[in-house]
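Z., the sequence and structure:
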Amino acid sequence: MIIDFNNMVFEDYPNFKGGEKQLTAKMFFDGTNRIMSAYLVPGASIGLHTHDVNSEILFVLKGEGILLDDEISHPIKAGQCAYCPKGHNHSLINTSTENLEFVACVPNQ
């Protein structure tokens, strides 16, 4: 299956997971798995949340920020990947002056 983000429309998700500002994303969801192409504007964040029933893989395409991984702060930048296993928590914060662009996959299988 091909998921063509080029033909999808960005949607805004204010205060996503309790974060600051908004997440802007193109999301594919088949009822089980979620894949998104997204960005955070400067100062925006995804709130700290726990993956109780799934995991998440996040690959940064452009920009830089801070990843909270089980509440431990790590710098993250383009070319790096973050993995949040089931049972753990994370947050993503754009601390730069440009958009933080990423692709994230939340498999529920």
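The chain has a mean pLDDT of 97. The chain has no helices and ten strands.

Let me know what you think.
H.
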